Amino acid sequence: GDTIEIHGARIRLNGIDAPESGQLCQDPRGTAWRCGQQASLALSDRIGREVVSCQQTDTDRYGRMVADCFAGRENLNRWMVREGWAVAYRQYSTAYVAAEDHARTGQRGIWQGRFDMPWDWRAARRSGQKAAPPMQRLQQLAGQNWSCSPRRTCSQIGSCAEARWYLQPLGRQA
């Protein structure tokens, strides 16, 4: 969902992170679905038979080109985030934060239910652990009588500062 291949070259889409191919998400009813596979299919369907052009921004630690890619005039990186198939990868770029906000408020793609941020899912997998259920850490800190409304999951809280803001009235610290 965040890597494409053009003429045998693997290209990582800059500034976004999509669920991994083996990653599952939960729909609003709590039913698991293959969001990683769906993200990849969405990107493939969006590209279709269009010519893709990419502007390299970096090379990652795996030797892949990191780039902003376009199908026609549409920025595919932004499209993936705006449609809810990827999140803004703030560690590398803030260019797609507004697109993520649009997807989150519209409950598009992975934002329709619960999911682990792709980097958290990968880290848990590397450590041999299952990723913690969404909001578990905040529930532990805040107890049961708390509300982060309108936020429903940790992935909807955009920063540590925002988490602290929600916890402050409870006398807790993140």
Automatic annotation (TrEMBL):
Gene3D superfamilies: 2.40.50.90. Signal peptide: none annotated. Residues 1-113 form the TNase-like domain. One of its GO terms (molecular function) is endonuclease activity. Keywords: Endonuclease, Hydrolase, Nuclease. Pfam families: SNase. It comes from the Bacteria. PANTHER family: BLR1266 PROTEIN, EBNA2 BINDING PROTEIN P100. This is Endonuclease YncB(Thermonuclease family).
